[in-house]
Amino acid sequence: MDNPAEKTEKSPLPGVAIDGTTIKSIREAKKLTQLYVASVVGVTTDTISRWENNRYPTIKRENAEKLATALDVELEEILRQGPAVMEEEPTPSFTPTKRRLVIAAAVVLMAAGLTIYLFIRQLAATPTAVRWLPHYAAPGEIVPVQIKVTRRDSGSRGFIIKEQLPAGWRLVKAVPAASSGEPAAAEVKWLIPGGNGPVSVSYTVQIPETAPVNRKALFSGKIIVNTGGINRTEPIGGIAAVTVGAFHWADANGDGRIDDNEIMPAYYLTEELKGLGLDWKSIEAIWSGKGYVWDKERKTFVVVK
């Protein structure tokens, strides 16, 4: 016959009593975090905290075994001596108040997500403007400037470009024509209507013959776009300084010559800005020779044969 005592030992108990103080001491001695223990057992850190504070000292035997495994001890080491006197921890449930709070939190999160989405979409719709300038130029020389504007949205609204020239520099010509900015050191403005695709604003400026050499001349500019009745202003990126010295603007690295790598970009730019005052013949002559030198007295470039 079967032994009744053996059946009793094999029957699983509904719960076991744990000693929260002992559990906390073992965990801290082994330098384990509540988060680690919780992840092994499969409960929250709040549950681990309640167990350690003897809020629910009677827990499911399965959880107690996992807890012992997490702490790397035998199950008996974390059990309370004597009979269990407290109920097993209740299964969490949503009360009406909690349910309302969860719904309210979800609504707030959805509203915040929608706001962030609209903000990012508005940023994506804003055109970006990037300026190109030659790195070097000589006093009295006419130099090209280009601003490339990328419109990310189809049917984009119009925008305003504003450029502040270095002191004493004079606007020569522009395509499209500038709305203002003829005087030296003026703020040059363009009003660009709405439309699709990229936009190029090209212009030439003349450096004063009295401009200090071996110094950088600084440009600054901004693009203004009206979205939703609000003006958004963004700085123009790209190159913002030209070093004034004994260099031709097509001499990109300032080594006193226009080589094969520099002549083609200069040609394409001069063709694109045809009629704006750039001197292609002098560029081609320098490229055909061995280089150039700057005649400080005559304010001109002399080709080295």
Automatic annotation (TrEMBL):
It comes from Geotalea uraniireducens (strain Rf4). GO terms for molecular function: DNA binding. The keyword Nucleus does not apply. The lineage of its organism: Bacteria, Pseudomonadati, Thermodesulfobacteriota, Desulfuromonadia, Geobacterales. This is Transcriptional regulator, XRE family. InterPro entries: Cro/C1-type_HTH, EF_Hand_1_Ca_BS, Lambda_DNA-bd_dom_sf. The chain crosses the membrane at residues 101-120. The keyword Phosphoprotein does not apply. Keywords: DNA-binding, Membrane, Transmembrane, Transmembrane helix. Pfam families: HTH_3. It comes from the Bacteria. Residues 23-78 form the HTH cro/C1-type domain.
